[in-house]
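Quick start: read one record
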Amino acid sequence: MTIDEREKLFRLNDASDEAVAVRLRAAREVAGFDRQRDFAKALDLNYQTYHSQEKRGRPSPSTVRFLYRNYRIDFNFIYNGDFLQLPGDVQTALEVALSDERK
């Protein structure tokens, strides 16, 4: 995949709620949580609270901090699609998750 294709897949510089929601969902899946309910439990959040964050594309700072501290997925990716600063294995896993999202 070329860098231009990856930028499009990761929605680089797209800070819309829709793009953030897609990236947040991919991050949750890469973190190993297929279900929102399980991720909310790991975050020590009410399920509806997390569900709303993901659906609206507006994660709380504590959600983004959890992803960074535990899974090396930082806020630059979540909010803006920046991926080059992420570790290679994390980039690859997110690329797969985002590609699956498009199918």
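The two ends are 17 Å apart (CA to CA).
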